[in-house]
Amino acid sequence: QVQLVESGGGLVQAGESLRLSCVASGRTFSSYAIGWFRQAPGKEREFVSTISWSGSNAYYADSVKGRFTLSRDNAKNTVYLQMDSLKPEDTGVYYCAAGAYAPKAVEYDYWGQGTQVTVSS
Question: What percent of the chain has pLDDT over 70?
Fold first, then answer.
């Protein structure tokens, strides 16, 4: 069992940065890939990025590639999503999830409650 808690969201202007954190409880955290998804109002949840259990591999959606960076510290049971050059279209609730190293939500078994990111123009 893994419990996930996201933090770091907020309101920023376009071009600014935010760093989201996903802290996990449970001894098996390092066995899971950790993915980030986001959901804007009226839209479906979409894949943002995922990082392998070791941290050696990361995969990004085209919409965030080059702007977002994912990293993890297994000693701290924490994954970080550094978001730079934010755009209004990045607005949404951001969720972290533990599961397989894949860009599909169905591949993830455990989910956090989400943190709101709002980017004003």
Answer: 100
